Fold this sequence. Notes:
Layout: H1 9-15, H2 19-31, E1 35-39, H3 44-54, E2 60-63, H4 73-86, E3 89-96, H5 100-108, E4 120-123, H6 130-139, E5 145-149, H7 161-173, E6 178-182, E7 206-209, H8 228-234, E8 239-242, H9 244-247, H10 255-278
Parallel strand pairs: 1-2, 1-8, 2-3, 3-4, 4-5, 5-6, 6-7, 7-8
Helix pairs in contact: 1-2, 3-4, 3-10, 5-6, 8-10
Amino acid sequence: MPSITTRTYASRAAAHPIPVAKQLLECMDRKQTNLCVSVDVTKKADLLRIANASGPYCCCIKTHIDIVEDFDQDLVQQLQAIAEKHDFVIWEDRKFADIGNTVRLQYSSGIYKIAQWSHLTNAHLIPGDGILTGLASVGEPLGRGLLLLAEMSAAGNLATGEYTAKNVAAARRYPKFVMGFVAMKRVDELEATSGGVAPGEGEDFVIMTPGVGLDSKGDGMGQQYRTPDEVIRESGCDVIIVGRGIYGGGSGRPDEEIVEQCKRYREAGWTAYEQRLKQ
Length: 279
């Protein structure tokens, strides 16, 4: 089978075994965008406004729902309606990192009830396979997908080497739920087998990559930025994650400026993808 990086999003969607990964890849092909907008704001109105302005140009909106000071269930309902209107998936960037029973409850219960509305979420593998069992028990029956944090974009982070390889091995043990990775490169292609677990038949992991910027190389707090071309074409990743580069700081730029920035990143990301297919 050809390398993932030489296949189109559409062909991957047609064969993908995880429904939400299929949905995401189909959306990317349909809208010609590999842009995920990370909306890290503290007010409900700002989150909804930025999501609505960005929605036509992205395949995914990423939230940190626990930083929203005036969270309520109406926010979730409105966000779901915006996602339906503009055709994107929702990713709650929860970064679960506890034992299986605890994450099962964090995912399904509490005030946020993440599994009810978020198509994707993610987790650290630090606790071992129990975290995957716990999350899968909730998310898999609902058709949700999980990303493992195999690598990070912050300077000095510890998600490297053997730990990254163990993330890939763990993902291969949960082929119906783990749909991909947060990573800086195609970690699934580093070795023919990773952590002693061979690739499964038809394996296809979606790589979502943070730390993407067109105008900056860092934020002074450890974040490091690469261009969409470096991420998509050179490193073979699938989705660029952009936050402040789209909406600015604080409550965000005006809508027209958000739209302008979304168009810039969508064009840059899609051009890099088209160039990758030609390599």
